[in-house]
Amino acid sequence: MTQPITDSQFGENVLNAKGLVLVDFWAEWCGPCRQLGPILEAIDNEIGNDVKIYKMNVDDSPEIAGQLGIRSIPAMYLFKDGKQVDVKVGLTTQSNIQDWIQSYK
pTM of the full predicted structure? Predict the structure, then answer.
């Protein structure tokens, strides 16, 4: 199950994490963000052992989004061993996201 995180949890859960971490930056008012939610849940159910998936609401936790320069959502940031390795902006398919994650294993 994807988990919500806040600005204060970002360092511990993402930057200090080992392995792959995907952070979905989203907002309640964003239609494509709401469409992406079930896709990420399905991915978490299928390959949750390969990647930890977090959701960060940019309205509730704007600090990290600002530091990363996020201007469009949904924005998925992929981290490996605490380092940002890639970004995908916008709604895309489940298979596209899974292939993207697997390419960094």
Answer: 0.96
